[in-house]
Known about the structure:
By secondary structure, the chain is mainly α. It is 67% helix and 0% strand.
Amino acid sequence: MSAKPARKSAHAVAATASRKPEAAMITDVKAIRARARQHIQDGAITSSYNADRGTVIKLLNEALATEIVCVLRYKRHYFMASGLMADAVKAEFLEHANEEQAHADRIAERIVQLGGEPDLNPDVLSKRSHAEYVEGSDLRDMVKEDLVAERIAIDSYREIIDYLGDRDTTTKRMMESILAQEEEHADELADLLDGWTGK
Ligand SMILES: [Fe+2]
Ligand SMILES: [Fe+2]
């Protein structure tokens, strides 16, 4: 069944009819076009970009390091998981590792869009990461450490989002959607810990 197209109210029809096409533009098109031609090497970043690009790139590189360390920690836990609940938990670890990798890729792509370079130098990744790489002594400990790391990511991403505010809404939206997934991860890990039996 196809939905009926929404009917315009009489008010909306009148407003459309009376509006001159050019007058409806938000700003001078010529000026926008001229600005776009200047600094074309800046790619997606135009002169209306309001944030401090260097700071945003630095914050994103910290988030990128956090994601990579999380991928590595989840992978380690995935391969080392053993015990009564290992099968169910292993699947969760692997899913989280893959989702953290997808976050890392989105962040790295945005860094490039902003004219920066994703810093993936393994020598400095763990120092820049907000979350830690903790191996965990047993399955329950691994889940606990993953929950701690997720909570750290949640707090630091929320701070990045607050900083971005209205200055860079594209980066902000990306970080908001990553944050939502970190909250899901934390929720799943907390549920696992709640119903824990055995090692
Ligand atoms: Fe993540
Ligand atoms: Fe996560």
